[in-house]
Amino acid sequence: TAARASYVRANPKSLEAFERAAEYLPGGTTRSGLFNSPFPVFIARGQDAYIWDLDGKRYVDALSEFTAGLLGHSNPVVLGTIRQALDNGLSLGGQIEDEARFARLIVDRFPSIKKVRFTNSGTEANVSAIAAALHYTGRSKVMVFEGAYHGGSLNFPVNGPSPLNARLDLVQTPYNDVEAVRATIRRQGEKLGVVIVEPMLGAGGSIPADREFLAALREETARIGAVLIFDEIQTSRLAPNGMQGYWGITPDMTTLGKYLAGGLSIGAFGGREDIMAQFDPRKPASLVLSGTFNNNSLGMRVGAAVLSEVATEEAISQLSVRGNDLRRRLNGTLEGAGVAGQFTGFGSILAIHFVMGSLRNANDAVTSHPSLRELFYLHMLEEGIWIARRGMMALSLALSHDDLDKVESAVDSFADRWGDIL
Ligand code: PLP
After folding, report:
1. Cis bond leading into 281, ω under 30°?
2. Confidence of residue 405 (pLDDT cuts 50, 70, 90)
């Protein structure tokens, strides 16, 4: 209660902006995930690794737009490429060469992708990939995992408010449970067309998949002829060739998005030559998939620049090392202070859970008390560290050592201040 009261006192302009917004947007927002009771902080601007709220407070941006802001807020390559693209016109209504440049970089980086199609968001990439896979197999069932998040209309929380989901013929199974998936896939047999999985549960708690789990999915789907899709929309930033490269497990299809176009809206899906060939318009019975902005000139040009010049395999690899190091330090801080909690994640993505023992699926994660997570969130905001309300952080390339030290001291002061009740 005290932390909430001080939050309300610190953000009068956000409160005003929220009240105005609520007149025109349900609950004052167009992204449910950004709502925070009684009102969310409104952001005025961002630069490098920092953002400023409407009341003028500066934060170290340790969220980086839920992983999409991998490059920070004013990356010179992104800004320079946008300026160049602007000079050539925005919506050209025809094919542009940057599409293929961007696509080639994706094919070169992610082992499962032989051909690509672009979309405007990760959700769209997943919807399209699932539809393509069902069409390819001529089957109807889609396997998803408890706690999975594949987009606004493909959201499978283990508790909480109901999502507005696309209607699919679904089979849900627990994450990281090798026996359950083997049994379910065998039982479904030739009814099952698609298995879609995040190589690390994202919104479900930043919980990495075990290699054995992904390997079992690979083996069982291949046996029954179902299409295995890795949703690497978050995880492709965790290792130079995504988690498929890290584990050496190649799915049939992969979806991408988030940071891929330097913070502009983007999605992409791709995969095996024969599955993607369904979209080849030179073929008589090809699948038609259009989209006015699917090859928008800003996204295509910036995407190519991001992959070739900024989010290089080397940069991704170094950021993962920094993320792993920060996670170790933060866990050391919690342990040293006797707090019953832990940071999960992999590489540059971290999330706090107020629960001990190993966390292997979304059910384990919900045992972490929501009010403790809110307390953590409010404390981090007060200390000038911007994170997700659910306790998730994602590092950007723009964060300095000093910024990461600030994150660590904010966690330290959290443990100091609230240690008694944790
Ligand atoms: N898949 C995963 C794993 C995600 O984390 C997200 C977004 O948070 C999506 C898909 C959806 O992407 P978008 O928000 O661009 O539609």
Report:
1. no
2. very high
CATH classification at residue 116: 3.40.640.10
d(Cα 239, Cα 347) in Å, to the nearest integer? Answer: 8
Ligand 1 centre to CA of 153 (Å) is 10
Q: Pick from 278, 310, 342: which residue ends a domain?
A: 310
Q: Which residues are catalytic?
A: 149, 231, 258
One domain, residues 279 and 365: no
d(CA 300, CA 266): 9
**Which residue has a Cα nearest atom 9 of ligand 1?**
151
What is the spatial distance between Cα 402 and Cα 224, in angstroms, rounded to a whole number?
51
In whole angstroms, give the CA distance from residue 174 to residue 268. Answer: 27
User: Which residue out of 120, 150, 154 has the highest number of ligand 1 atoms within 8 Å of its CB and is therefore the one to mutate?
Assistant: 150
Q: Which of 52, 67, 129, 68 is nearest to 302 (CA)?
A: 68
Atom of ligand 1 nearest to the CA of 124: 16
User: Into how many domains does the chain fold?
Assistant: 2
Cα–Cα–Cα angle for 50, 260, 271, rounded to 5 degrees: 155
Which range marks the domain in which residue 336 is found?
Answer: 2-70+314-421
Q: What is the mean pLDDT of the chain?
A: 96
Taking a C-beta distance cutoff of 8 angstroms, is the pair 302, 90 a contact? no
CA angle 136, 149, 105 (to 5 degrees): 60
Query: How much distance in Å is there from the Cα of 391 to the middle of ligand 1?
Result: 17
Q: Encoding tokens for residue 195?
A: 């298995």
Which residue has the least CA distance to atom 2 on ligand 1? 150
DSSP reduced 3-state for 204: coil
pLDDT tens track for 85-105 = 999 999 899 999 999 999 999
| Arithmetic mean of pLDDT, 280-293 | 95
Lining residues, ligand 1, CB within 6 Å: 66, 121-123, 126, 149-151, 198, 202-203, 231, 233-234, 257, 267
Ligand 1 pocket mutation, candidates 31, 123, 237, 389, criterion most atoms within 8 A of CB: 123
